[in-house]
Amino acid sequence: MTYKIIGDSCLDLTDELKKDSRFQMIPLTLQVGNATVVDDETFDQKKFIDMVKACPECPKTACPSPETFKEAYEAADAEGVFVITLSGHLSGSYNSAALAKKLYEEEQAEKGEQAQKKQVAVIDSLSASSGELNIGLFIQSLCEAGLEFDQVLEKALAFRDRMHTYFVLESLDTLRKNGRLSGLQAFFATALNIKPVMGADAGVIIKLDQARGINKALQRMCDIAVKEAGDTKDKVAVVCHVNNAERAEYTRTELMKRGQFKDVLVTTAAGVATVYANDGGIILAI
Prior knowledge:
Elements: E1 3-8, H1 15-18, E2 23-26, E3 29-32, E4 35-38, H2 45-54, E5 60-62, H3 66-75, E6 80-85, H4 93-111, E7 119-124, H5 130-144, H6 149-162, E8 165-168, H7 173-177, H8 183-191, E9 194-201, E10 204-212, H9 214-229, E11 236-241, H10 245-258, E12 263-268, H11 271-277, E13 282-285
Parallel strand pairs: 1-2, 1-6, 6-7, 11-12
Antiparallel strand pairs: 3-4, 3-5, 8-9, 8-13, 9-10, 11-13
Helix pairs in contact: 3-4, 5-6, 9-10
């Protein structure tokens, strides 16, 4: 089966995967004050971070239109198209991609025998960033192993449901202002230099633990992640960073001290993850 893996722009592909024609990102739109930024290959992370710091208003994101997703499905030169989106609790991206699938399939049905023989699956990652990429890599491995479309989808959903996502952020401001955290949590984290170790429960952000200082929080995140992962020798961990490659490598090293992973990949956040994780944020998925 030939395949295409499409994600919204929180898929956060590595530089190598950006060159792979089997992967594609559909950009969200970022709003900073009166400025609009498209989260595509033109995204300039450092310039964007400076814009956010200079703007008193909280940055916002807007999901791609169903038409944009549908055009990607139509253009995909593949028998199986797998679409991975941000958690439906964080964005309307999943609903947009799912509506696009419905519209695409209705049009194909009208064409009858003239229609392209292409199957589309839309997967709510119940995660973001590293989590989306980890699901994408798993789907790729299944496709490369020669599994059929339905088998890939079944196994991908099971993988998603057992995958865990974690993050440690320098600032919780954006999450707080967007209603993702209580003001009390954000206040204590800022006032006492306490960095919460956050996770996700079925796509909803939760606090797992906390530590004083960023490095201790990263260590604690790695402790929790490796413990919850169990046997890691056949697992891939994905570490995504916002403008702090050194911190990402520190996290990678701490993970490798604790487990024997099949691989630990490091990638850089695109625009959406930069909005929510802020400068210096680290996102981990296993």
